Structures are given as C-alpha cells and as structure tokens.
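Lab manual, section 2.4: Encoding a predicted structure.

Procedure: take the sequence of the chain (229 residues), apply the prediction step described in section 2.3, and record the output as structure tokens. A sample record is shown.
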Amino acid sequence: MKILLVEDDENLRRQLSGSLNGRGYTVEEAADGEEARYLGLEFPYDLAIVDLGLPKLSGIEVIRQWRANDIQFPILILTARGDWQDKVSGLEAGADDYLVKPFHMEELAARLNALLRRAAGHASPVIEIGPIKLDTVARTVHRHGELVKLTSYEYRTFEYLALNAGKTISKTELTEHLYHQDYDRDSNVLEVFVRRLRGKLDPDGDLNPITTVRGLGYRIEPPGESGNG
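Recorded output:
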C-alpha cells in the first residue's frame, strides 16, 4: 500500500517514514502544502497522512482541494493536543480520522490499517479467500491453517489484490500502488512476483487464487466465485 506522508517537521517525517516502511508500506513524502497538493492530484495513493500546520498551504486547504477534485483516498490528519477546532475543521474538509501529537506508532499503524480496510469494504482485519486467510494486522497469510512464508513484496502484492477482490487490477496500477515512483516498472518483474506468489499460495494448483485476465491484469474473485487463469 502506498502512503503519502505530509509533514514539515523533518525529524518526525523521517521517523514516521522509516517506521512505516518497516511495516511494509511504500511511503512518499511532502514537506509543504503545495507539494502535497500536487502529489495528491497527480499520483495514485491508498492513503494520506496530513499534518495540518504546513507551510505554503495549510493541511486543511490541501484536503479541501483534493476532495474538490474528487480525490477519494482516506486521509488521517495529525493535530496538536488541545486544538479541537483543527480536528473539526480537518474532518469537515474531508479527512476521515485524526491523531493527536504526540502519539504511539502502534496507534498510528492501527488507524491506518482500519482506514484501508474500510476503504476496501472490509470490517474485519482477516480476509478469507477459500482456505487462504490474510491477516492485515499481523501481516500474515495462512493456507489450510498453515503459515505461508512470503517476502515483503509478495505479501504486499497479495494484500492489494485481496483488498480489491472482484476488481481486475492492471500491472500498471499494481506497480503504482506498491512501489516508489522511481521503481523499475518492468512488467516481467511483476510477473515473476505473481508467479512465485501463486506457487506458494497454491502449490497443488487446485485453488487458483489469482486469476490472470488476459491483456488486462490480475484479479482475485470475491468469496463464493471462481475464475480461470
């Protein structure tokens, strides 16, 4: 999942970015409101974390302009303790949740996970695809109750497809949401990840959890449906 982190405090921004990267997120950063506005309008993200006290353009105005341009990704705002007016203004501008500084990283991670799940229409952190269970909190995958050992890239690929079950995801979209903008976008590399992922999730070849939609991309069928790939 790709997150846009908007924070003008360089030390905090680096700390948050490092922690989120360590939890398997792809993080891109903005240090002021104008840069944040541009990135949010021009590139796809799954979620944004926005500090309200930004230079050049306030966080609230950034959110307003994103929403006015039909940018729909979830937004978590960061506010200073006691500034309840900012919380209200941020939510009224279109943010989905807020977190008060200082905060624990575990709470931030839990709120991000909940926002991403809700945006994808999942109330539970566990997504079941036949005998395969993906736990978005523990970031683990089990097949018939046994742990499937996945690399970070493999897990992120499967998680994105599972959260978007029922949709055909193009290779371009998958790459944009999983990797940084400067990532080598060789479709052959993505095909290797998906092929390796299939081999781990479906070693016997009888589940077909990831369908190839020829010429369009990849798809995980919603529970109760099946496809051919």
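Check your result against the sample. Residues 105-119 form the longest helix (15 residues).
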